[in-house]
Specification:
Elements: E1 11-21, E2 26-33, E3 44-47, E4 56-59, E5 62-64, E6 67-73, H1 77-84, E7 90-97, E8 108-113, H2 117-129, E9 134-140, E10 154-157, E11 164-165, H3 172-179, E12 183-187, H4 190-203, E13 206-210, E14 226-231, E15 234-239, E16 246-248
Parallel strand pairs: 8-9, 8-12, 9-10, 10-11, 12-13
Antiparallel strand pairs: 1-2, 1-7, 2-6, 3-4, 3-7, 5-6, 13-16, 14-15
Length: 256
């Protein structure tokens, strides 16, 4: 994976430009920092939520001329606060944190699931800008979960209410055989990333996975997002927030 852009915490004042519901369970917020911030595909920012000690981390969904967009679901006090923001309000963010996807001039298959579809949409945008051939498939529970306006080539819903019926994982082998990718990028729940990594190994295809973990500090200090990876023939600890969030699928020790 490529080297992270920032190793030290940087805090910026940002104005809310847009905030809107984009599906039954998710919202989009776009913020503009007082100083333009460059964020690459795979990285995340942390938003300070009034009255709470810990910031809330979010993968970047878009970054247009310094206007950073994230997709979020209302899950607790932090996201309730963010949902309550209005256009013109000011907040502060920290970041960007973590490493990035290693974008190569290779035919790519992108797999997203749930809220993990957001960073994959940003990666697709970057691949398109570079003229790199790619195909993006994403899975959601139901039609109501599909974010409006997200550019996706193939949509799957578990209940069959939109697109192809079933999990996106059900179509993984077909997608590999049809599109013959040289690299697979993925973000989503643990089981999705585990199976993507296993299929990549089966077909001899490089995989890069953006791990989803609860991250408190964002700089690897609290050790709340530790996973095991294989390095130099040994199993060692790695923090998703600092060493990741992007890892090679082949280096992660996948728990059953």
């Amino acid at each position: 994976m490529t080297k992270r852009k920032n190793d030290m915490k940087k805090i910026y004042k940002a104005k809310v430009n847009r905030i809107e519901r984009v599906s039954a369970s998710s919202h989009f917020i776009e913020i503009e920092c007082e100083i333009p911030v460059k964020v690459e595909a795979g990285q995340f920012i942390s938003i300070y939520c009034d009255g709470l000690t810990l910031r809330r981390p979010f993968s970047v969904y878009s970054n247009n001329n310094g206007r950073i967009g994230v997709l979020f679901k209302e899950r607790g006090k932090g996201t309730q606060y963010i949902k309550s923001l209005k256009v013109g309000d000011f907040i502060d963010i920290a970041g960007p944190f973590g490493n990035t996807f290693d974008i190569q001039n290779k035919k790519a298959l992108l797999i997203g699931a749930g809220i993990g579809a957001a960073p994959m949409a940003y990666l697709k945008e970057k691949l398109d800008e570079k003229g790199i051939k790619n195909y993006y498939a994403a899975g959601f529970l139901t039609k109501d979960e599909v974010p409006a306006g997200m550019k996706i080539d193939k949509i799957c819903t578990d209940d069959g209410s939109f697109g192809d019926a079933g999990s996106v994982l059900n179509y993984l082998g077909v997608l590999i055989n049809e599109h013959k990718p040289e690299v697979i990028y993925a973000c989503g729940p643990h089981i999705v990333l585990k199976i993507v990594a296993e299929q990549g190994e089966k077909y001899g295809i490089e995989t890069q996975v953006a791990m989803e973990k609860v991250m408190a500090c964002g700089i690897g200090v609290c050790r709340g997002c530790v996973i095991d990876i294989k390095k130099d023939g040994k199993i060692v600890n790695a923090t998703v927030c600092k060493d990741g969030p992007v890892f090679k699928g082949s280096e992660v020790v996948w728990e059953n």
